[in-house]
C-alpha cells in the first residue's frame, strides 16, 4: 500500500513539474551567482562571479538599457 | 586588439591539450558509423538534411566529439580559427557531462530550457575564445538565434540572449569563467608567448 502511494506521489510530482517561482527574463544575484529566470519560471545560473579569472569579481545589481540587470563586476583593487 | 594567427600545429596542440585535460575522444564524423545512422534518422524525420548534419555540425555525445573536419586541416567551412573556437566549446560540453554524468544527456534531450542553459554556458566559452583570439565577440542576439537549430523555444532563445549579454559584459572586461575557456586561454598564452 505504501509503495503504491509513493508511486502515485512520485508520478504526480513528475507530471506536475515544479511551480514557477520567478518572472521570466528577470535576473538576480544569489550570493555570488548571477541568475536568470528561465522560460518555466525557475532560477537558472548564468555565471558564478567567484569563478571568474583574473581578479576578484562580485555579483552586483545594475541597470542595462533602463532595465534592472544583475551582473558580475570586477572588484576595485 | 589584433587577430592572433594560428598554425595547424597550434590548433592540433590545443585540441590535444584539452583532450588530455578533460578526457574525451575526437572522431571525424565521416568515419563514425553511429553518426551516419543519426544523420539518416534526422533526415528521415525531416529535422536536418543528412549531408548538412555531417558537413556543418560538430556534435558531442557523452565524451566523444564528432567533427566535420580533420583537426589542424583547414577547410572553407572550418578554417583554423574556427577549429580553435569550436574545440573549447565542445570540451565545455564534456565538462557539463562530467558534472552530472547521469543527468546531462536526458536533460539536454528532454528540456528546451535545459538545452538552452547548457548551450548558453558553452557559447560563453565560444565568446571567451573569440575575444581572446579575434578581439571581438559576436553579438549575443546572433549567437542566441543559433538555438533555433536546436529546437529551443522563442522564450528560451530570449533567456539565452540576456544571459549571453551578461557574459559578454564580463568577457569584454577580460574575465573568463568557463572551465574550458580558462584551460584553452592559459594554454594558448603559453604556447604563443602572449
The greatest interface between two protein chains, and residues involved on each side, is: A-B, 27 and 24 residues
Strand fraction band of chain A? 35-45%
The assembly state of the depicted protein chains is heterodimer
What is the residue-mean pLDDT of chain A, rounded to a whole number?
Answer: 84
Please write the string of helix (H) and strand (E) elements of chain B: HEHHEEHHHHHH
Shape of chain A: flat
Q: Strands of the largest sheet of chain B, in order across it?
A: 1-3-2
Number of strand elements of chain A:
5
**Which runs of chain B of at least 5 residues are low in confidence (pLDDT < 50)?**
none
The portion of residues assigned to helices of chain B is 55-70%
Unreliable residue stretches of chain A: 11-16
Distance between the termini of chain B: 12 Å
Strand percentage of chain B lies at: 5-15%
Judged by helices, strands and strand pairing, the structural class of chain A is: alpha+beta
Largest beta sheet of chain B, briefly? Answer: 3 strands, mixed
Structural class of chain B: mainly alpha
Q: Radius of gyration of chain B from the CA trace? A: 16 Å
Biggest sheet features of chain A:
3 strands, antiparallel
Specify the helix fraction band of chain A.
10-25%
The average pLDDT of chain B is: 93
Question: How many strands of chain B?
Answer: 3
Amino acid at each position: 500500500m505504501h509503495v503504491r502511494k509513493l508511486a502515485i506521489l512520485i508520478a504526480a510530482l513528475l507530471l506536475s513539474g515544479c511551480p514557477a517561482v520567478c518572472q521570466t527574463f528577470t535576473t538576480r544575484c544569489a550570493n555570488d551567482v548571477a541568475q536568470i529566470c528561465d522560460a518555466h519560471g525557475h532560477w537558472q545560473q548564468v555565471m558564478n562571479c567567484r569563478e571568474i579569472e583574473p581578479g576578484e569579481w562580485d555579483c552586483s545589481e545594475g541597470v542595462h538599457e533602463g532595465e534592472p540587470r544583475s551582473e558580475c563586476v570586477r572588484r576595485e583593487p | 586588439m589584433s587577430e592572433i594567427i594560428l598554425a595547424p600545429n597550434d590548433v592540433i596542440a590545443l585540441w590535444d591539450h584539452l583532450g588530455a585535460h578533460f578526457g574525451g575522444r575526437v572522431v571525424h564524423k565521416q568515419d563514425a558509423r553511429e553518426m551516419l545512422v543519426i544523420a539518416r534518422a534526422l533526415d528521415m524525420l525531416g529535422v536536418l538534411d543528412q549531408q548538412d548534419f555531417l558537413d556543418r555540425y560538430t556534435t558531442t555525445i557523452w565524451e566523444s566529439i564528432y567533427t566535420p573536419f580533420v583537426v589542424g586541416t583547414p577547410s572553407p567551412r572550418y578554417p583554423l580559427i574556427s577549429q580553435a573556437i569550436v574545440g573549447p566549446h565542445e570540451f565545455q560540453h564534456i565538462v557539463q557531462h562530467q558534472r552530472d554524468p547521469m543527468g546531462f544527456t536526458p536533460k539536454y534531450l528532454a528540456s528546451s530550457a535545459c538545452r538552452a542553459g547548457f548551450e548558453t554556458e558553452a557559447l560563453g566559452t565560444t565568446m571567451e575564445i573569440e575575444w581572446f583570439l579575434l578581439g571581438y565577440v559576436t553579438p549575443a542576439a546572433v549567437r542566441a538565434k543559433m538555438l533555433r537549430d536546436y529546437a529551443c523555444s522563442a522564450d528560451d532563445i530570449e533567456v539565452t540572449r540576456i544571459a549571453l549579454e551578461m557574459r559578454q559584459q564580463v568577457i569584454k572586461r577580460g574575465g573568463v569563467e568557463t572551465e574550458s575557456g580558462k584551460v584553452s586561454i592559459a594554454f594558448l598564452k603559453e604556447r604563443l608567448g602572449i
